[in-house]
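Q: What residues go here?
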C-alpha cells in the first residue's frame, strides 16, 4: 500500500557527539531517495530490501543513480528497512557525519524535521503525542513509567470515561474523578522537570554541608565564615525515584555587604517559587527569637536541626521546649539523612499514583481539565464534554 506520509528525515538520537547516530527516513519514495546515496555491500537496492533486514554499506551524497561506489569511498553506515516506507540509517555519531546524511536526503526531496514533529504514520491522539515527547525528557525510570502509562492510554481513557459520565447525567461521579486528575496535575508537571527544593537558614548552620551530603559529592563550598554562599548553588538528586533540584542559598541575615545582600535577595526569590523549603538550624546553638521569626516566615517548611554531632550523645535535649520539633541530623557525619529524605518525598509526593493511573502531565491538559470542571459547575454539560474531548 502506498504511504501517505510525506517524505521526511529526522535525527532520532540526542544532539551532540556520540559513537552512533540514527536518522529516521519515512514517506513515499524513501527507498528511492536512500538508493541514490547508499550502496549496500551486497548490492541490494533498498527498493528491493526486505522489511526487518539490516544492510551494511557506504553512504555518499549524490553518487548518481546507476554508478557503484568503490569500497574505499563513502562513510560506512547501516540501513534498516523497518517497513515499506520507513527506514533507519545508523551512521557515525559526529555532528558533521549526521549533517552530511541529512543534507544528502534533503537533496533527494526529504523534508528535514525535528524528531518531535516527525510523522511516522501513527494515528495518535494529542495526549499520546505529548507523552511520546515527554518521555524523552523524563529523568528517572519512575517518572518514565508514569509517562508510559499515559502513552498507553491511561489519561485518554479516563478523560473519555469522565465525558461519558457527564453525558449520562452523572455529574457527581464526573466531578469527583475530574478533581482527582486536577490534583494529580501538580505531580504530573514534575514528570519532565525536577521538584525544586531550597535549603535555607541563617549563616553557618550547615546548609552547604547538607546539600553536599544529600547529593553525595562536594557541590557547594563549605567554610565557617558567614556569607560564604553568595549566589544560589544548585545540584540534582533523585529521592525514591523522583527527580529533585536542590538549591543552596545565602544565609539569611541583615548585612551591609551589597554582594551578600544581593545573594540573600536571590535566596528569597528562590524560596518564593520552590516546591519545598528545608529550614536549617544549628542544633548546638540556643534557640532565639530570630529563629522563631524565621520559622514564622516559612510555614510549611521542613525543620532541620543540623550539627547533632556536637551534642552529647548526638541527640537533641528532650527538655528544650523552646526548640520546635524537626528532623535531627548531622550533615558532616551523614546522620539522619534517610529520615530527612523520607520526609522530603512524603511532602513532595504525598500519594504516588498507582501503576496504570491517569496523570495529566502538561499545563495544557491541566488547563483544559480546570475549564471543564468550571463549565460543569455552571451546569454547562455540553461545553464540559466538548472541552474534555479537546484534551
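A:
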Amino acid at each position: 500500500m502506498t504511504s501517505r506520509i510525506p517524505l521526511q528525515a529526522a535525527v532520532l538520537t540526542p544532539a551532540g557527539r556520540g559513537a552512533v547516530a540514527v536518522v529516521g527516513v519515512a514517506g513515499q519514495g524513501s527507498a528511492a531517495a536512500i538508493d541514490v546515496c547508499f550502496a549496500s555491500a551486497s548490492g541490494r537496492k533498498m527498493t528491493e530490501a526486505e522489511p526487518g533486514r539490516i544492510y551494511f554499506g557506504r553512504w555518499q551524497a549524490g553518487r548518481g543513480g546507476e554508478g557503484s561506489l568503490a569500497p574505499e569511498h563513502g562513510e560506512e553506515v547501516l540501513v534498516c528497512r523497518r517497513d515499506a516506507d520507513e527506514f533507519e540509517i545508523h551512521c557515525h555519531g559526529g555532528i558533521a557525519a549526521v549533517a552530511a546524511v541529512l543534507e544528502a536526503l534533503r537533496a533527494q526531496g526529504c523534508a528535514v524535521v525535528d524528531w518531535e514533529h516527525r510523522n511516522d504514520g501513527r494515528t495518535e491522539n494529542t495526549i499520546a503525542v505529548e507523552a511520546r515527547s515527554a518521555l524523552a525528557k523524563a529523568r528517572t525510570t519512575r517518572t518514565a513509567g508514569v509517562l508510559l502509562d499515559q502513552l498507553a492510554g491511561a489519561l485518554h481513557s479516563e478523560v473519555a470515561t469522565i465525558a461519558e459520565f457527564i453525558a449520562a447525567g452523572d455529574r457527581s461521579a464526573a466531578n469527583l474523578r475530574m478533581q482527582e486528575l486536577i490534583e494529580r496535575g501538580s505531580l504530573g508537571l514534575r514528570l519532565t522537570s525536577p521538584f525544586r527544593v531550597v535549603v535555607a537558614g541563617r549563616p553557618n548552620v550547615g546548609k552547604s554541608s547538607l546539600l553536599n551530603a544529600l547529593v553525595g559529592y562536594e557541590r557547594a563550598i563549605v567554610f565557617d565564615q558567614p556569607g560564604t554562599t553568595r549566589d544560589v548553588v544548585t545540584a540534582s538528586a533523585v529521592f525514591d525515584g523522583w527527580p529533585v533540584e536542590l538549591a543552596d542559598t545565602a544565609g539569611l541575615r541583615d548585612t551591609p555587604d551589597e554582594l551578600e545582600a544581593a545573594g540573600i535577595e536571590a535566596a528569597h526569590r528562590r524560596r518564593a517559587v520552590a516546591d519545598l523549603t528545608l529550614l536549617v538550624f544549628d542544633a548546638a546553638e540556643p534557640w532565639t527569637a530570630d529563629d522563631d521569626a524565621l520559622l514564622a516566615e516559612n510555614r510549611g517548611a521542613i525543620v532541620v536541626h543540623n550539627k547533632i554531632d556536637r551534642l552529647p550523645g548526638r541527640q537533641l535535649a528532650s527538655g528544650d521546649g523552646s526548640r520546635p520539633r524537626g528532623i535531627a541530623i548531622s550533615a558532616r557525619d551523614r546522620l539522619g539523612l534517610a529520615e530527612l529524605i523520607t520526609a522530603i518525598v512524603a511532602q513532595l509526593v504525598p500519594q504516588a499514583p498507582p501503576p496504570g493511573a491517569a496523570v495529566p502531565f502538561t499545563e495544557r491538559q491541566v488547563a483544559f481539565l480546570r475549564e471543564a470542571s468550571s463549565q460543569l459547575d455552571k451546569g454547562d454539560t455540553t461545553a464540559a464534554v466538548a472541552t474534555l474531548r479537546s484534551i
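A: Context that may help when evaluating the design: The chain is about 35% helix and 20% strand. The radius of gyration is 28 Å.
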